[in-house]
Amino acid sequence: MNNRRWLPVLVLCMAISFSGCAKGVGGQGMDSVGSMPVPSQVEVGLDSALQSQDSSSSEEESGGSSSEESAASTAAKAYSTKAEANLNSGIYRIKTETYSYQKDNLNYSAEYPQLVSDTIRSNQVNQLLKNCAMQTIRTLGTAKRPETILVRCTGDVTYEGKNFISVGFNEYEKLSPKAETTHTMRTLNFDLKTGKTVGFSDLIQKGDAFYAALLDAGKSQLDADQAAVLDVSTIRQGLDSNVIYFTDESVGFCVRVVRPEVKLVRITLAFSKVKPFLIANSVWDNFI
Fold first, then answer.
1. Three-class HEC string of the chain
2. Residue 93, phi then psi, degrees to nearest 5
3. 21, 55, 100, 157: least buried by Cβ within 10 Å?
4. How far apart (Å, rounded) are the C-alpha atoms in residues 127 and 24?
5. What per-residue confidence (pLDDT) applies to 64?
6. How far is residue 276 CA from its own chain's centroid?
7. Rounded to an integer, what distance in angstroms lies between the CA atom of residue 177 and that of residue 64?
8. Which of 110, 119, 134 is nearest to 29 (CA)?
9. Residues 271 and 287 sit within 8 Å (Cβ to Cβ)
10. Per-residue confidence (pLDDT) for residue 222, from 0 to 100
């Protein structure tokens, strides 16, 4: 998983829907991280992005030269010394699994991380990660369609800890040739010690002070046009409570804005900034 794929500001989309995977994304299971890695930006047409996808899997060894470029292996220079100390130290490694289906006007592609280890709950978390990536594809099924349907989902590890893993998913869906592309974000946050997923409602207490903190952060993180129209009301209404993700330096949130155009944006809060809004949970011990 390449951390740099998550760095760009999330792609503009005219129709946006949100959902979560498992409770790790707040009740079901989400997008991601850069400084904290963030989901990959897709600026090409979805049709071309979904073409020529081959089913395969490739392992990226944590600690190998190629893995040093991956989200699973490059969480260095952590803003939080505690987050850095709790990074994966070889307990498991990450491989990327891919799925492709092109038949009967269906063009599906999914890419998701899998943990390889004999000492942690890899089977449990791997099933959850696969389910998150394949959620829409399984819902749509493989029955022949009269018009082309395109679905592409990619997942990246945003924080790879020895006791906790955070993964973000970007999905782009086009249900007919004339339909607009829908961008969906999902996250999955899994406590490797307890075997439980955790989400927004387990970790963050919403309220006016929290919205104000996101507004302050958004004003400095978003582009000028977005920042100019961002206000507390926009954040309150557009915040996706199913989406939360972690990096070695911050916690990420997603907000749907409608001006100057409909768009999904991410806003991150450094651990020092998010402290006043925490709900007591052992997950925070990995970071704060």
1. CEHHHHCCCCCCCCEEEECCCCHHHCCCCCCCCCCCCCCCCCCCCHHHHHCCCCCCEEEECCCCCCHHHECCCCCCCCCCHHHHHCECCCCCEEEEEEEEEEECCEEEEEEEEEEECCCCCHHHHHHHHHHHHHHHHHHHCCCCCCCCEEEEEEEEEEEEECCEEEEEEEEEEECCCCCCCEEEEEEEEEECCCCEECCHHHHECCCHHHHHHHHHHHHHHCCHHHHHHCCHHHHHHHECCCCCEECCCEEEEEEEECCCCCEEEEEEEEHHHHHHHECCCHHHHHCC
2. -125, 165
3. 55
4. 13
5. 39
6. 24
7. 42
8. 134
9. yes
10. 92
The pLDDT of residue 8 is 39
Amino acid at 283: V
Enumerate residues 6+ apart whose C-beta is below 8 A from 94.
Answer: 1, 60, 62, 67, 70, 72, 73, 113, 114, 115, 116, 157, 160
Q: Which two tokens stand for residue 65?
A: 């030269």
C-alpha–C-alpha distance, residues 180 and 78, integer Å: 39
Residue ranges of the chain with pLDDT lower than 70?
Answer: 1-20, 22-79
CB atoms within 10 A of CB 101: 15
Only one residue has tokens 């299971």, namely: 29
- Segment 19-53, tens digit of pLDDT: 567 554 333 333 333 333 333 333 333 444 344 33
Using omega within 30 degrees of 0 as the cis cutoff, is the peptide bond preceding 177 cis?
no
Q: What is the pLDDT of residue 117?
A: 95
- Predicted pLDDT at 23: 54
Task: Name every residue whose Cβ is closer than 8 Å to that of residue 212 and which is 6 or more positions away in sequence.
Answer: 232
CA 212 to the chain's CA centroid: 23
pTM of the model: 0.76
